[in-house]
Amino acid sequence: MAKKKQALSPEERLAAALVPEEEWPYALPDGWKWVYLSGILDVSKEKTEEFPPDTKYVGLENIEKDTGRIQAVDAEGIRSTKNIFEAGNILYGKLRPYLNKHGIAEFDGVCSTDILVFQTAPSVEKELLNRYFDLPQFISFAVSHSKGINLPRVSAKEILTARMPLPPLSEQHRLVARIESLFAKLDAAKEKVQSVLDSHETRKAALLHAAFTGKLTAKWREEHQTELRESKQFPSKLKSAPNHADALAGKWALVRLGDVIAWSSGGTPSRKHPEYYSGDIPWVKTGELNNTYIYDTSEKITKEAIAQSNAKVLPVNTVLLAMYGATIGKVGILGVEAATNQACACGICSEWVDYRFLFYYLQSQKSSFICSGKGGAQPNISQTIIKQYEFPLPSLPEQQEIIRILDRLLAREQRARQAAEETLAAIDRMKQAILARAFRGEL
Question: How many CA atoms lie less than 13 Å away from 422 in the CB half-sphere?
Answer without folding.
Answer: 6
